[in-house]
Amino acid sequence: MKGARERWVRTGGVELCVAELGDPERPTVVLVHGYPDSKEVWSEVAVRLAGRFHVVLYDVRGHGRSTAPRPLRGGFTLAKLTDDFLAVVDAVSPDRPVHLVGHDWGSVQSWEFVTVGRTEGRIASFTSISGPSLDHFGHWIDARLKRPTPRRAGQLLGQGAKSWYVYLLHTPVLPELAWRGPLGKRWPKILERAERVPGGDYPTGSLPSDAAHGAWLYRDNVRARLRRPRPDAYAHAPVQLITPRQDAFLSERLYDDLDRWVPRLTRRTLPVKHWVPRTRPDQVAAWIDQFVTSVDGGRPAPAATGRHADRFAGQLVLVTGAGSGIGRATAIAFAEAGARIVAVDRDAEAAARTAELARLAGAAGAWAEPADVSDEQAMEVLAEKVHHQYGVLDVLVNNAGIGLAGSFLTTTTDDWRKVLDVNLWGVIHGCRLFGARMAERGQGGHIVTIASAAAYQPSRALPAYSTSKAAVLMLSECLRAELAPRGIGVTAVCPGFVNTGITATARFTGVDEAEELRRRRRSARLYGLRNYPPEKVATAVLDAVAADRAVVPVTPEAKAARLLSRFAPRLSRRIARVEPRL
Ligand code: NAP
């Protein structure tokens, strides 16, 4: 692993390969890998945490570069794995408790560490991803066997079916032959296709022997523990549970009774598959950072409260034009749902204020990035920085836009250029630069464009603005068709009259400055009287993304205009002829 310092820790007849990153004076975070993996599964998360923490990873015995116990049988019991963990912790953080993070079997064994007496005082917190405690699992099965209501029996059968590979791993020799043969060769491709794990330098060359040795993790522990789960497996440190909702191996229901075992439990969910440290390193690192910081600060971890917390918590959301109006309200609504927010606006101060408000609203991280969406080069620089510093977006909201009113004959080419540059080209740049990376990542995502009811309701007073918005609506529809096979949804949100600052900055053509100012004031007053709040548009945006809707008119007049354009186009054209009196 790049930049890591390595050392060896001897314990119980094996030598463990331990890697460290970051400043040892900072809080220590120990990352424990699962099956069939080595510590490299954590490399993407580790580098993201290294700036703020002392990060420690080790190859579990028999995996990666750590040596294997002899004989193998009986060499992988949870008691021995706990000895290893304590030996590593004694070496890397002798005086302070560590923050423990486990994925898959790394989490299964970490549950043991955090629930046995001899580690008390050595663990400050535990983040568990995709790996239940075998004791809790045993009690979960018992409870369902004792009272098998149809729902509970269904849960039992559901998890039983997901555990097919556990039965196979208990057969002698076969798993070893498969892993050292064809399965070991095909595994990287299987991970890429079925689990959407990006290719590259993971998994490492040690995979066949990791997988063969790791079979003993199951054989040495699973049956015995599930039959006789410990009655006192209570966690002695706060636990953050991250549950991927599309895990092919573990049912979400497994954690239903967890509050009974964990007095201080923070739950997070993610709409992804099993290999979260590889597919969502930004999100995982952000949650670990937030949890560790809150535990060390003696505060409870901030919990997302918004209606869509389940859907958006931890997701990376970028909103353009976030310095005011609909953009700011949307950024805050995503923040309330626990998302990580990048607030983009050409007004740096306004963007910074939105980021601050987002943090106060519960964002799992919020940053301000000044940029003009109509400036292609600036957008390229922005995309590069965002991808490098915060990761690939889960949701992009192309919101930045400007108003332009006045007849076609009074609209200059310069006026056209300005409105198309921001309202259309801004959206094109956003979709191209951020959408491409979303598609490349292969984990889905969502793109929102804030169009307008003017996209489908013609008006003699808004030819340029309406044209820009109609183009945005069509772009959204085309993009939706193109990106659907990649699991990326595209939504065009079409508000009517919303009480924001857009009227105060809109350009009115064909009139002198004094008249333009008067019209701005008058339209601001009318929008104020209409008083439809941008927060309601923000709610519509989150609802639309959650439900993956294609076109969403917001406000009653936008809905009415949509119906007219589809079912009474002649009436719609009549309305277009009405000259607004400003
Ligand atoms: P707003 O209050 O004026 O907010 C727009 C924000 O975008 C402002 O902070 C603005 O900054 C920023 N912005 C403008 N041009 C930009 C650029 N080139 N690069 C980066 N940021 C830029 O307006 P809003 O009503 O919330 O509008 C948001 C979106 O909703 C727009 O696309 C608009 O067309 C659409 N919409 C609004 C209504 C409505 O009734 N309000 C109706 C339908 C659709 P500055 O303040 O510096 O200009």
Automatic annotation (TrEMBL):
SMART domains membership: PKS_KR (SM00822)
Residue stretches making up the Ketoreductase domain: 315-496
Highest taxon, organism lineage: Bacteria
One Gene Ontology MF term: oxidoreductase activity
Keyword terms of this UniProt record: Oxidoreductase
NCBIfam families: PRK05855.1 (NF004514)
Sequence similarity: Belongs to the short-chain dehydrogenases/reductases (SDR) family.
Name listed for the protein in its UniProt record: Short chain dehydrogenase
